[in-house]
Here is the input.
Amino acid sequence: MKREILNTHDGSTTIHLKEWDECYHSKFGAIQEANHVFIKNGLNLFQNKKISILEIGFGTGLNTFITFLESSRHQLSIDYVGVEAYPISIEEVQLMNYVEELKAENERSVFDMMHSCKWEEKLSLSPNFLFTKRKQLFEEIKDFEKFDLIYFDAFGYRVQPELWSAVLFKIMYNALKFNGILVTYAARSVIKKNMMEVGFTVEKLQGPPGKREMFRARKL
Here is the structure.
């Protein structure tokens, strides 16, 4: 599938899949979206705690890198697992401008390491941030009550509805600890229905720039 690099409205880059007309991040701002959906409405609920995070769609590494920066700023202890079945190329990684846009030049080696490290091996990126990258289809995830927080950042329902099914959300539900949280940029009614079908309690929140709403789901 042909891919191209786009600049989003906040100046940060994303990858555009031309055949699907689908982007890895919001065209209205890749960094803005990551901060709003996954940090403000996810990570920030776990201040002063040791937590484990599962990311569904490691992709460009943006969500992981921002979470790493937050862990350093706020002394959070995080064990992070990013799942990706179809990794981007090193050439594409080098075209992502997140280090510059986030003013994190001192951490460039960490961003590079996230992409160049071996799959399936736990890596200490800092004294308080453990990182594992798993090359795996989402439906193959077998974790049980392991994670406090899930970043659900799969491609949209329009192009891959199977990734937003009750079957997938049951896997996510099983992977979460009790009182765990799943956050996603999505807000379709069919997605809410599928989440609730497997046991999630779902709330609708204000979306990131360019999107009216988003979902946060809890395992209670």
User: Anything to note?
Assistant: The first strand starts at residue 3 and ends at 7. The chain has seven helices and eleven strands. Residues 110 and 125 are 7 Å apart (CA to CA).
